[in-house]
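User: Can you predict the 3D structure for this chain?
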Amino acid sequence: MASVESTRLPTRAARNTAMIANVTHLDAVVVSDLFGVAPETAHKWAQYASTLAAQDKSR
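Assistant: Here is the predicted structure, written as structure tokens:
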């Protein structure tokens, strides 16, 4: 089994993907409580996720 150090997992990318996935299914206030971020930050993530979803639909 490979260790985390040897695989060099992109933790920031994984975190960002998890945040986007959660704000698309949950209210920003809920995400704020779950992840311990400010409500304004969770709202910005929700706006970003909706922009990504709109771009995907237009393709």
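The first helix runs from residue 4 to 7. The chain has a mean pLDDT of 85.
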